[in-house]
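Q: Structure tokens for this one, please.
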Amino acid sequence: MADGVSVRRATRDDAASIAGIHVDAWRHNYRGWIAETTLAGLDVAARAAAWRSQLEAGAVVFAGTHADIHADTHTDELLGWVSVGPFRQSESARPEVRTLTPGWVELYGFYVAPRAQGQGVGSALWQAALAWCLDQGYREVGLWVIAGNAPAVRFYQRCGFRDRELDQNFEIAGQPLVEKLMARPLVPRPRA
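A: Here is the predicted structure, written as tokens:
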């Protein structure tokens, strides 16, 4: 637990909260980069159903919570989440990316509720994801970030990620954007 943040593996019961954070974070963080009509059209219920299916299928998602204890009540409100798994090998990816990334792990999604940003939630989630990646024996971790998203890039740099200078074009609802590949090596833990 760091800064009042506790991290645990997400369950299917967290799907609605994960979807809500996903949509809220997109609307907050991507305003000005992604078209307002796209952001307004995000459907929390559809995302919750998709997350429920993914979690039931064994998706690795860590949820950051703040345990709030008052008298006889205890709440376990989700403040953010990170999803990890084997690096996806997209057919549309640059050949250099496909050659570079076998054996890597990927942070598929990493979002903190707008009201909880800057309060240590992201750092706690990163530590949990890092521990899992090391336990799984991966050699490198990568992620894609919208090229102009300076706050996210700075956060990932503080976590040891570096720009691999393999930017590529992609689209969200027909809108052209650029994403950058950031990565960092994973140093194995010493065996006891």
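A few notes: Residues 121-136 form the longest helix (16 residues). The CA atoms of residues 145 and 184 lie 14 Å apart.
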